[in-house]
Amino acid sequence: MTDVLYTPDALRQLQHNGNAVLIDVRSEEDFAKGHIPGAVNMPDIFTYLAETSESGLASLQQKFSSLFAQYGLDGSKTAVVYEDALHTRYGASCRGYWILQYLGYPKVGILDGGLRAWLASGGALTQDITHPAPTQFPLAIHHALMATRQDVFAALTNPSIKLLDNRDKVEWLGESSSPYGVDFAPRKGRIPGAVWIEWYSFMHTQDQEARFKTPEDIRALAATRNLYPDDDIIIYCFKGARAANTYVALASAGFTKLRIYMGSWNEWSRHADMPIEDGLPRASVPYRPQQG
């Protein structure tokens, strides 16, 4: 993952060479209080709710390619995305990384440990606003990374495709419909046949900093749910942020056939013709390993 996760020192070197566009996915309010020098703010990476219909995907592509163009991403500079820490904004920095990969951007990474790691390494903050020169974004959609609602529906009867739900426990159990509120989405439950590993489980958390576990530990955790590196896996959460965090974790452990259902539960639950399971799963017990 050396080409995905950037240490604070590696980020400083990129900035020194003038080769970085640093994207802060936190709220406008938090960004205004202080951010890494040179960073631009794009909270839409976290807040955007995607639809995976043809028109919905076209809207997603247009919106983010336009935003990234405004911030100077022309294909020659490395985009490095960060949040406060890898576990504090539901994986928003990983969502930004994944969106850029989906749009075909050639150079993109994540600040390992987020803003907290930057501060712990002696990094400074500023309130100054950077205004990059707009450019032409090199759009080249990587379709293989995206699972649509219809792809997921087809997977329900295809045993060669595995569904991984990595939402918080209350959502998996059908006690809440979303992180936005118990009844934010119209239905509670999970997609039939999915297995569950809560997204926090792929990380170690210490002193309020989160880091991904080792590839060996990630593979061992996935194996408890019969998930292996050669499997065709679709990951979903509520809107594709936590799923992106898990995508990065699994990719770091050698999983190569990964897709994110970007619409996730927000989309699935709003279509009455999409089946759900609610209550306790019939054939499994919710699983969460010890945090460490």
Provide structural commentary.
It comes from Acetobacter pomorum DM001. Residues 16-127, 157-277 form the Rhodanese domain. It holds the Pfam family Rhodanese. By secondary structure, the protein is α/β, with parallel strands linked by helices. It folds into two domains: 3-140, 3-Layer(aba) Sandwich (Oxidized Rhodanese, domain 1); 142-267, 3-Layer(aba) Sandwich (Oxidized Rhodanese, domain 1), CATH 3.40.250.10. 31% of the residues lie in helices and 15% in strands. The protein contains eleven helices and twelve strands. The strands form three sheets. It has a five-stranded parallel beta sheet. A hairpin with a 2-residue loop joins strand 9 and strand 10. Helix 5 crosses helix 10. The longest helix is centred in the N-terminal third of the chain and has 17 residues, at 54-70. The two termini are 21 Å apart.
